[in-house]
Every structure is written in C-alpha cells, then in structure tokens.
Amino acid sequence: MHRDTVTGILLMALAVLYYKMADALPRSLLSDNVGADGFPKLLAGSLFVFSFFLLLMGILRRRATNTTEEQAKKAHEKQAALKAAGMLILGVAYLLSVSLIGYPLAVGLLIAAVLLYYKEALSLKVVITAGIGGIFFWVFFVLALEIPMPMGFWAKLFAGGV
C-alpha cells in the first residue's frame, strides 16, 4: 500500500473525529446562524476532502516498474538519512561544547566542521570563513541584539585571571 493511501485514510479518520468533536460543542442562544461549531466543521470537511484526494492519488499512483530505479531511489534516501544523522551529530557536538569553549569558538568550529563534512577541502579559505563566521555571529548576537552568549574559558582569560 502506498504511503499516500495510508496517510489519506488516517487523515480522513481524523477529519471524522474532528467533525464529531466540533458537533459536540455546546450551542448558545446568543450564537449566530453559523454557531461556534461552524468553522471547525468547515475545517473538518476540508480536511476530509483533501484527504480523499490524497487517498485517490495513492490508489492511482503507478508503481515504478524499473527495480533499478527503485533501488537507486532507496540508496539515495539512505544516503540522505545518513547525511542528516551526521549533521545531527555535529549539532549535538556543538551544543555540548558551546558552554565549555565559548560561543565564538564553538560556532567557528561548527562552520568548519560543516564545510569539511560537505567535502570542502581543508584550506585557508575554510579557516578564515570559520573564524569570521564565529566572530560575526558573536558580534551580531551579543552586541547588536544584546543576547548574552557563553564565553566558556575565554571569559576568565579576558577577565585577567586563569
């Protein structure tokens, strides 16, 4: 079963449930012709109609006949998922290090790591970009927006004591 078919069925069920919940809203003598339940019912009906079209698209969608194309698509999806996981690991490393080494250095290292992760060769350009990026974002947040950022061990160095 195609995922559009499954999604369409689930969203249609959600639309029916939402309609029943809207229909259970209390009616007031002060309400107008539409009532408090009018707009939620309209939303439920719209969700049902769009879900029905999604269901039809899933049913009518032709399956790819070429298995090599399917395998290439799956390999591409797997590669994209692995790339996203790598970026997640870089983000976690940044979050774990920012309070220890300070915001400017952590952002600079993050920029360099992302550039290297996306196959940029280690060069002076990468080092300069990372350095300028770390300084730029620190100046932007701390000086321009007045949002304090952690300085890590650099705060002690600039304060005059180690």
List keywords for this structure.
162 residues, mainly alpha, 6 helices, 75% helix
**Looking at the structure, what is the overall shape?**
flat
- Share of helix among residues? over 70%
Q: Secondary-structure element sequence? A: HHHHHH
Number of strands: 0
Structure description:
The longest helix has 35 residues, at 67-101. The protein has two domains: 3-60; 68-159, no CATH class. 10% of the residues are buried. Helix 1 runs antiparallel to helix 2, helix 3 runs antiparallel to helix 4 and helix 4 packs antiparallel against helix 5 (124-144). Helices cover 75% and strands 0% of the residues. The protein has helices at 3-23, 38-60, 67-101, 103-117, 124-144, 154-159. It is mainly α and 162 residues long. The protein starts with a helix and ends with a helix. The chain is built from six helices and no strands. It is flat, with a radius of gyration of 27 Å.
